[in-house]
Amino acid sequence: MTAVETAREGADRETAEPTRPFAPFEWMIAGRYLRSRRRETFISVIAGFSFAGIMLGVATLIIVMAVMNGFRSELLGKILGINGHMLIQPIDQPLTDYDPVAKRLEGVPEVISAIPFVEGQALVSGPAGNLGALVRGLKESDLRRIPLVANNLRAGTLDGFDAGQGVAIGSRMAQQLGITLGDNVTIISPRGSVTPMGVTPRVKAYPVTAIFEIGMSEYDATFLFMPLPESQAYFNMDGITTGIELYVVDPDNVGTMLAAVEEAAGRPAFVTDWRQRNVTFFSALEVERNVMFIILTLIVLVAALNIISGLIMLVKDKGHDIAILRTMGATRGSIMRIFLITGASIGCVGTLAGFFLGLIVCLNIESIRQFVSWLTSTQLFDPTLYFLSKLPAEIDSGETVTVLLMALALSLLATLYPAWRAARLDPVEALRYE
């Protein structure tokens, strides 16, 4: 019997007891195909590039999404930690009854604290130069209720803040003005005294009693805190505050608290929350995050296409082997599963390796940044440009699972066509010239 007749007989014969799916011999043959021989080196190189592409694509996706999440979380924490979650401002009448209103607001469920404040813009001057500043007047007890300031003092203390005339400034402001603890900072406000010659700017020097570092460069270079009574006198707002800031348990739940807050205010007031005040900023972050996910997914897609090309070449190279297997009784399903296992192994192992690589980088991203900065003698993460003083990374388990499932799905889909093509191979044609 010739090879062609044997092949035709094997192709037409249905085995009496077909092998179960994913039988040991299918895994064994798939494993042999993954191990290269000298004449199959090129196919093995393509498989290696496919593995590396999927690994790097998954790792890059995990790292970038973690950094974007870290940016959002850190910026949200810094911005809301010093600006409050809700802002109540007076309408029609000045806010002279700020203490009773604050007490009523603190009685609203889920409200942690209500802090009256005076706010104004001014020019601050020191030995090294001048800066624009946001001057905010607070009581000592209220300033201690802001953890970002009270828990991050680099020098000085808040003790006796109300009794004295000292101010608390950010570390970058102190650095840029050339000021240290105990030095005087001069504050210049255009809203000064009214004279027959017009309005004269108000100029006054205050000793620096505390220097804080929030970790957000813009705030550390801009904010200046002074005692509430002193700020009222300085900005000509005796007995009046600019508004009241609320800190709540869940910032994402401020929308449902609006009616209760307005009722507790007990007076006409304009109430805004952090989402309205920062809508452009956080919307831009969300858009950038989604676009980065889509762009970086293309890396995984290209690696999946490499799996397709590598498997097609493997099928073409193994045509003789496929024909022999068919004559020995292997079904089309067995042949298809062999190549499915071959391609899926590259994708699954690459995805797993990418997950561990991304996890390791995310957990040590700040150390890696510092090492690369030291190695290249450059500043890779300038806090004056990126707001934060260190590179954050926060891994979200849901997003990570989505990335892994997406990579696995693309890897499995990439194996379908080459495996189907292998299963459709006619053993008669493959052995015709043997």
Automatic annotation (TrEMBL):
Cellular localisation: Cell membrane
Bilayer disposition of the protein: Multi-pass membrane protein
Residues that span the membrane, as ranges: 42-68, 291-315, 335-359, 401-420
InterPro entries from the UniProt entry: ABC3_permease_C, Lipoprotein-release_system, LolCE_TM, MacB_PCD
Cross-referenced Pfam families: FtsX, MacB_PCD
GO biological process: lipoprotein localization to outer membrane; lipoprotein transport
Domain MacB-like periplasmic core: 51-263
GO cellular component: plasma membrane protein complex
Similarity annotation: Belongs to the ABC-4 integral membrane protein family. LolC/E subfamily.
Signal peptide bounds: none
Assigned keywords, A-Z: Cell membrane, Lipoprotein, Membrane, Transmembrane, Transmembrane helix, Transport
ABC3 transporter permease C-terminal domain span: 293-427
Protein name from the UniProt record: Lipoprotein releasing system, transmembrane protein, LolC/E family
